[in-house]
Amino acid sequence: MALIVQKFGGSSVKDAKHVMNVAKIVTGTYSAGNDVVVVVSAQGNTTDDLVSKAKEINPTPSSREMDMLMAAGEQISIALLAMAIEKLGFPAISLLGWQAGFATNSVYSSARIKFVKPDRIRSEIGKKNIVIVAGFQGTNKYDDVTTLGRGGSDTSAVAIAAALRADRCQIFTDVDGIYTADPRKIPTARKLDEITYDEMLELATLGAQVLNNRSVEMAKKYGIELEVLSSYKGIPGTIVKEVTKMEKMLVRGVTKDTDVARITIMDVPDVPGIAFKVFSRLAAKKINVDIILQSVGRDGNKDIAFTINKSSKEAAIDALSNSFSELENSKINCDTNVAKVSVVGAGMESHPGTAAKMFEALYEIDVNIQMISTSEIKISVLIDLEDADRAVHAIHRAFLPEQ
Amino acid sequence: MALIVQKFGGSSVKDAKHVMNVAKIVTGTYSAGNDVVVVVSAQGNTTDDLVSKAKEINPTPSSREMDMLMAAGEQISIALLAMAIEKLGFPAISLLGWQAGFATNSVYSSARIKFVKPDRIRSEIGKKNIVIVAGFQGTNKYDDVTTLGRGGSDTSAVAIAAALRADRCQIFTDVDGIYTADPRKIPTARKLDEITYDEMLELATLGAQVLNNRSVEMAKKYGIELEVLSSYKGIPGTIVKEVTKMEKMLVRGVTKDTDVARITIMDVPDVPGIAFKVFSRLAAKKINVDIILQSVGRDGNKDIAFTINKSSKEAAIDALSNSFSELENSKINCDTNVAKVSVVGAGMESHPGTAAKMFEALYEIDVNIQMISTSEIKISVLIDLEDADRAVHAIHRAFLPEQ
Question: In terms of CA atoms, which chain B residue is nearest residue A63?
Fold first, then answer.
């Protein structure tokens, strides 16, 4: 007998049929002799419906009232799931964020969980109830309703699993696990049985948005074993944990991120302090910078290039234009016709040839590399957008040949 | 400066336009220098939508989960109203039942308010916020969400007004006050400036469903002055209070109730204990009996007739059929082709001629009276359904002639 936390996203409970499907998964786990705590998001389109109701009345509502509104979404889905489980003849009880003991800070719309006080959940488990908890929401010290922001329900599930010292936290999604590449694009992509937290974090950052990063970070911190699996297929998914069987696999995945812009500042005076000034101005605007490249100075000038998320393009140009005297004679150039392709794998730390192998694969298909960035478990390159898909294929073939 | 509680029903907040209209009324009251607490029901069709979502999954959900589901309705409307008030540039804060301090018993779906602990509301008033409270909901001693059942938002408003010792509790509706008869049917019907709690209770019982009875009873108990007024017209409504200026008006209203059935048990043995047996069996099935008539015994037999709500017809016949030996040779007859017409007015206590005047009005238009029931402030007659409208006209003309 184990204590299992199961999380279902909005598309998994989008209508009566889907809610019943979730009820069957949950009661199946319960019938097998496990204690089950379920975390649910708002139904499919409820969130969008509530947002449009709000915008019709006030395009800029206070975030406190927005959270009050949005939290109604999970309230509906937890009650419906409890009814579905009752219908199947099993005992169920639904709990809102505040009832389940979710204490957050007061940053409405993207609150962070401070702690979970799971007394009520424990008592309901003790009564043999299947406990259904509203994801994405909590209350702050004023007893006001808060929401956790994007991906919050994953974080809710991991936080409960940590507070209850659950044996496993299962994240049910539309896909059946973590793949070495996007299986819709790369037919030879393989589902991984296991992956480490760090690899998962790199993959998520790089665009494989199966698991929210905050939830993976929290799972790592508390040592919660995560499983990413399908709501529909009934087969094992991918386990995310600290140490995995390496399967002699250098690389765990190849990803592509097309949501990138490259900014180049040309002809910057080659004097100390320039980089500091540029990047502190970007930081002040809360613009995340990814790869940074600085050319070697020549004729007293140099170039600085960096990549950012496409959506920050205007803000970045704005932050740098006419901002300080050293850039007076510089030219700022922005290119959104680029993609970042990366390989991720804890195995590569100890294999110095990984980068070379990746570059070779790109050379063979005649792809030019504009920028390079490496970490212990990741190598990323910036290339032309039009080369991205070919590049992923070639790299996947090089590291993960068909079995 | 006064403290005013304002309550708006579901049709008053049914869409963005209506929510903005309510926001204008509320901020108008606030701008005039008053502290304002607003109680809101769920938006128009939200309640029906949520019920059908539930029924699709489970036709007989537990009432605890049903309350959890339904309570999301007011959560949406309070947040939207707060946003509308913010949009008009006024400070607002929305509070759920539990945040506003509504403690109820544990009868899910028709919970009763045990007390309101208005600390949070007071503190928000102190901060000069317009406080918007979710009607219809509270929490029980287990910290579970409960709903108050039909008309519950009126009761919520009166309970808050009592807990805050508010100067007035305004109930905004689709009509602009309490009339001496249904103004759509009786063109000479007059709006009353004032009416007593007891008169209001009789009128509500008799089918003039403007105010929920529980809320009037609570207002009477705590001496809360109620005002029933229109959400749209911006004119004074009808004040409901303990003692009113009598305006030399004998009768406050004429009402008709067509939701009545008359059950007759014919040829009951004329022996002691029969009435007790009949009505205790009905009571055991929770069937409310209204008018009772027992014929004088003849040939050792008598008839017992009584009226009930139409919806209890089958249950009543069922409770009496083959129930005890004395009814063996009796015949049970049910007539739904009847209506109850009543006059209500505290003035009639001291005017012995009221009943006679009413009967005369009916005689003049040739309406036969089947049953009669009287209380200190009410006279009701049971007549043929087809005579009901004519009867209301004639009685209204007799007591409340055109001015």
Answer: B83
Query: Who's near A140: CB < 8 A, 6+ residues apart?
Result: A103, A104, A105, A106, A111, A146
CB contact (8 A) between residue B79 and residue A72: yes
Which range among A289-293, A361-365, B36-40 shows the weakest confidence by mean pLDDT?
Answer: A289-293
Tens of pLDDT, residue by residue over B259-312, are 999 999 888 888 777 788 888 888 888 888 888 887 777 778 888 889 999 988
Q: Which of A164, A80, A155 is nearest to A123 (CA)?
A: A164
Distance (Å, whole) CA A228 – CA A172 = 6
Domain parsing of chain A, residue ranges: 3-173
Cα dihedral across residues A123, A126, A127, A129: positive or negative: positive
Cα-based torsion angle of the residue sequence B15, B18, B23, B28 in order, rounded to the nearest 10 degrees: 180
Residue A26, SS3?
helix
Token code pair at residue B169: 């509790």
**pTM for the whole structure:** 0.80
List pLDDT tens digits, range A165-194: 999 999 998 888 888 888 888 888 888 899
Distances (CA, A) of B332 to B303, B317, B321, B329: 10, 7, 8, 10
Q: Is A177 helix (H, G, I), strand (E, B) or coil?
A: coil
Q: Which fold has domain A3-173?
A: Carbamate kinase (3.40.1160)
CA A216 remoteness from chain centre: 8
B281–chain A Cβ distance below 8 A for any pair: no
Pairwise CB contact (< 8 Å): A86 & B65:
yes
Nearest to A82 by CA among A124, A138, A145, A139: A124
